[in-house]
Write a structure and sequence with these properties.
The complex is a heterodimer of chains A (305) and B (274). Chain A has 305 residues and is an alpha/beta fold. Chain A has two domains: 7-221, P-loop containing nucleotide triphosphate hydrolases (Rossmann fold); 226-286, Alpha-Beta Plaits (2-Layer Sandwich), CATH 3.30.70. Helix content of chain A is 35%, strand content 28%. Chain A is built from twelve helices and 13 strands. Chain A has helices at residues 48-55, 76-79, 97-108, 113-121, 137-149, 167-181, 194-200, 218-223, 234-242, 266-275, 290-298, 301-304; strands at 7-18, 22-33, 37-41, 63-68, 82-85, 155-159, 186-191, 203-208, 211-217, 227-232, 249-253, 256-260, 279-285. Chain B has one domain. Helices cover 75% and strands 0% of the residues of chain B. Chain B is built from twelve helices and no strands. Chain B has helices spanning 2-13, 16-40, 57-62, 65-87, 89-94, 100-137, 146-174, 178-199, 206-209, 213-223, 228-232, 246-270. In chain B, helix 2 (16-40) runs parallel beside helix 6 (100-137) and helix 4 (65-87) packs antiparallel against helix 8 (178-199). Chain B is globular and about 60 Å long. The two termini of chain B are 26 Å apart. Classes of the chains: A alpha/beta (305), B mainly alpha (274).
Chain lengths: 305, 274
């Protein structure tokens, strides 16, 4: 899988099993392009963190192939160009923020001048001499981001970077992620918070039960939501729309019909209704929020049936 | 590698546990080697009152390394790796540049360096204690040769190093500290202690005891002047033989260090890091 060209991350049929019964990641095909902010979405337990750990070489895949920056996961050549924060940032509690970064800089073989630079970048210089155990959650997150930035990496992997932050902290982190993406850096952002993903990502992959269930730009994913129809009689209209090919679901909400279908099918639906003598007073594309799409995509099969 | 080791030395140097262990080890080492036996009845000491004089410094101190010192080194080794699992810092290190084996080698090297002050501090404190006792007894001050002291300190370091390497292995194996220390002390007290005691009567156990840390550690200690009587009455860490030749003991301890390090590397390299 060398010679990835524009792809920074590529996985093929990436699978992680724990024992015979638990499949944490199931034949995942993931492609992250150079310079994009890629949102990796999924509910808790969907396999996001396991996937990221496999990308970083912390967890070994059961099967499948992975290349990160053209190297196998965990290869020093690749890691030298990757900055990452996986789950809660972990530091030596008795060391100061600065000393924690000095330890990491030593292992990463980057100059100690980078320590001060990243402390300044995440605005932790004032507390850098304090032990990391005294830091608030938000400060620990910022120290985690500082650690990820030490190598001035081409690829930044951030797993739930706004976990535990207050609204102001979340907004600050979103701005920060946006600024990180400037200058051609690739950012993979894992989250289950739709708001932050919607605001900062170029493309999104949605994972459910370890498998990728959707991938595209935020606009593309939101476009999947479908149509809203006001018609009389409503029950007959619903029955007719359900029979239209490619319609996934029709639900009645407050005298309207929510139709889950590609919005390109609007003319066909309109024609069916009009030809059946149904009075159609409204028919418009209803773009769902990313959260709505996410909930639809990640709803378990049992719930959707 | 220098920068990796320097980074690990910072981790060890700034950790309070390192200094607490060093302080307790030095204090108790002198306390049990000099203060208690001298205060009780120096004439009845296994080596007589002379064992407290500067000339016996190497042997008197080395007698405490194979068991008592071993437990301290074991804890230091466990803390060096086991704590990383508890704090989650292992994953932070592994996603830096170096690769897992490089991190382990840096940690082992830093640990090996950190053991040097443990040896030096005890010998320095022991020298002071022996000097004071000699003054009290009105005995002439006669120090062991520099060469003997160097060899004794090197032997002490080797004995501590093998226990520290065992601690590292247990820390990696159990991915933590509490169970690792528990198993380590269980091994030191129960497994080695009991089997060594039974080896006198159960001859089939004798070859096994020859690779024990205790047997080889005490063999080196006696070769450098530790009294066998003193070792036999060494409380829970006592040992009554059989002793092995000191070159063999050095080789066995070195081989054990290599084996513990290799097993740790194997586990670290192949296991997932949560």
């Amino acid at each position: 899988m060398n010679g990835l060209g524009d792809l920074v991350i590529e996985t093929r049929a990436l699978t992680k099993r724990y024992g015979d019964s638990i499949v944490a990641v199931d034949h995942l095909d993931l492609r992250v392009r150079r310079g994009e902010v890629y949102g990796f979405l999924g509910p808790n337990g969907a396999g996001k963190t396991t996937t990221l750990r496999m990308l970083l070489g912390l967890v070994r895949p059961s099967s499948g192939r992975v290349a990160v920056l053209g190297f196998p996961p965990g290869a020093p050549q690749g890691l030298a160009r990757i900055g990452a924060m996986v789950e809660a940032p972990a530091f030596y509690p008795y060391l100061s923020g600065r000393d924690n970064l000095r330890v990491l800089a030593g292992h990463a073989r980057v100059g100690e001048d980078r320590v001060e630079a990243v402390l300044d970048e995440v605005r932790l210089t004032d507390r850098a001499a304090d032990r990391s155990r005294t830091y608030s959650l938000g400060m620990k997150q910022r120290l985690g981001v500082a650690a990820a930035l030490l190598k001035d990496p081409e690829l930044l992997i951030l797993d739930e970077p706004t976990n535990g932050l207050d609204p102001a902290g979340m907004a600050e982190m979103r701005d920060f992620i946006r600024s990180l993406a400037k200058g051609g850096r690739t950012v993979v952002l894992s989250s289950h918070l739709m708001g932050e993903v919607e605001l900062v990502t170029d493309r999104v992959g949605v994972i459910r039960d370890g498998a990728l269930v959707a991938e595209g730009t935020v606009a593309e994913l939101r476009g999947r939501a479908g149509l809203r129809v006001r018609a009389e009689p409503l029950a007959a209209a619903a029955r007719l729309i359900r029979a239209v090919p490619d319609v996934d679901e029709v639900t009645s909400v407050d005298g309207l019909l929510d139709v889950t279908v590609d919005t390109a099918r609007a003319p066909a639906i309109n024609r069916v209704l009009v030809e059946a003598g149904i009075a159609v007073s409204e028919l418009y594309a209803q773009k769902a929020s990313l959260e709505h799409v996410f909930l639809e995509l990640t709803r378990s099969e049992g719930e959707s049936s | 590698m220098t920068r990796n080791v320097t980074a690990e030395l910072l981790v060890l140097r700034k950790r309070a546990a390192t200094w607490i262990l060093l302080g307790i080890w030095t204090f108790l080492g002198v306390f049990f080697a000099y203060v208690v036996p001298y205060a009780l009845d120096p004439e009845d000491a296994p080596g007589g009152v002379e064992q407290f004089f500067p000339e016996s410094l190497a042997g008197t101190l080395l007698a405490g390394f194979p068991f008592f010192g071993g437990v301290f080194a074991l804890m230091l080794g466990v803390f060096a790796l086991g704590s990383e699992y508890g704090w989650g810092t292992l994953k932070t290190l592994f996603i830096q540049r170096p690769g897992r084996l490089r991190v382990l080698v840096a940690k082992l090297a830093a640990l090996a360096i950190a053991l040097v002050p443990f040896v030096l501090a005890l010998f320095a404190a022991g020298a002071v204690a022996s000097y004071v006792i000699a003054q009290i007894e009105g005995a002439p001050i006669s120090w062991p040769s520099g060469w003997l002291l160097v060899r004794a300190m090197a032997a002490g370091w080797l004995i501590l190093a093998v226990w520290a390497a065992l601690g590292v292995l247990l820390g990696v194996l159990t991915r933590g500290t509490s169970l690792a220390i528990g198993i380590g002390i269980l091994y030191a007290l129960v497994i080695e202690g009991l089997l060594s005691a039974f080896a006198d009567s159960v001859t089939v156990l004798e070859p096994l005891t020859n690779v024990f840390l205790r047997a080889n550690g005490y063999s080196i200690a006696t070769a450098l002047g530790a009294s066998t009587q003193n070792i036999e009455s060494n409380g829970p860490g006592s040992f009554s033989g059989p002793f092995v030749d000191s070159p063999q003991a050095v080789a066995v301890l070195a081989a054990l260090i290599a084996a513990f390090a290799a097993l740790s590397a194997l586990l670290l390299r192949h296991r997932d890091v949560a």
